[in-house]
Amino acid sequence: MKKINKNCLKNHSSLICNICGSNNIYRIYIRKQNNNLYRCLNCNLIFIHPQLSIKELKSIYSKIYFKNNDSQVCGYQNYIGDKSNIIKTSEKRIKDILKIYPNKGKILDIGCATGFFLESAKRAGLDVYGVDISNYAVSMVRKDLRKNIYQGLFLEYDFPDEYFDIITAWDYIEHSLDPKQDIQKAYRLLKKSGLLVLATPDIDSLPARIMKDKWMGFKDIEHLFFFSKRTIKKIIQDVDFCIIKQKYIGKYIDVRFFIKRMEIYSIFLSKILKFFIPKVLLSTSIYVNPRDILCVYIRKKK
Ligand SMILES: [Zn+2]
Fold this sequence. Notes:
Blueprint: E1 25-30, E2 36-40, E3 46-49, H1 54-60, H2 63-66, H3 83-100, E4 106-110, H4 116-123, E5 127-132, H5 135-139, E6 149-151, E7 164-170, H6 179-189, E8 190-201, H7 206-211, E9 225-226, H8 229-235, E10 241-248, E11 251-254, H9 255-265, H10 267-276, E12 285-288, E13 293-300
Parallel strand pairs: 4-5, 4-7, 5-6, 7-8
Antiparallel strand pairs: 1-2, 2-3, 3-9, 8-13, 10-13, 11-12
Helix pairs in contact: 3-4, 9-10
This protein binds zinc ion.
């Protein structure tokens, strides 16, 4: 695949809605890291402004992003150490995809990180491709998969039209500098009747509305756009995509991590759980679905 000249990427500095192009925008509140949040009055998309430069974006996803003690603010506590849970989650997600698209074929995972989802996809019989902005994550991809893994922005790489059967983007689109262009490109790269699967935090979900600025989806620094069912529908409307299914998805995590994460919402509740849950159960894996990560299965019509 050839790399595209970076000048193809748009200038992201202006205060214009990425989805509908409206400049009818107003500021809603200021977050911890001095990122200003804005809402488009035309389509309801929420986004930070000013947006990051490509250089700033790339600098976020270093090794420390994947292992740090401040993961409620940015990144992961221990992404690689959590591999068994990520693989379990991936296997569940692949199974769901193959129920809708049993033909298999070529899959592209945008924001593939260390390629754990692609390991599961390969085991399920798919021909796997991935792209990720992180130098570190791509260097950690399993050797036998690396041939088709590209380091950089999705928009920086060109693939032939109608090349892929399935494109997945797990927790990716909210990190992108240009979600609209990503969707248009995914449409072009998918075969007829191909499947696009997007998963992103839903800012209209009940947990988001209850937790307000404590909501996990409001991760400072890394989340640039905040979607809802309504704005996802809006972003795909200019191309011939149709939503065939949407649901909230969860993931497998250790009980220990679950208790730690509860501290954000209630230190009291977290302490109660710590007290009552036997130590032997702390490393048990549980499936947690707070119903705030929206997963949308989208079919290319023609
Ligand atoms: Zn808009």
